[in-house]
Design a protein that fits this description.
The chain is α+β, with helices and mostly antiparallel strands. Helix 3 crosses helix 4.
Amino acid sequence: MTPKQDALLAEANIAVIGTVDAKGRPHATPVWYLYDDGVIRISVGENGQKHKNVARNPNVSLVIDRRAMPYYAVMIQGTAEAGPGFSDEDRLRLAVRYLGEDLGKRYVEMTKGESSVTLRIVPRKVMEFDPMAARG
């Protein structure tokens, strides 16, 4: 990742993950994510479609974009691996990242005990959309 790509992933943008279902159809959904040391982690329902799709086919795509000026996006192709759900600390970190301190704490409390897994995505190919780069 470039410094500009790392900076985008450090922001609390909504990502869209693309997986493939059992019939070969694309399945894309918005998700919250954490990004540390070149790895993207997403918390998903243990019995949810994203988890089922990754269990069959670990190839995923992820789009993270800034939808306000200056527009910028990173498109990632990679492999997802399912593992244990987020720790309580990471659940709180994720919720606070997207909702702020008060709402984040309430969200974590409301969703306590839900069965989840972590999708750990290691980028294989990274592309970017930077419409202002060519303009100087």
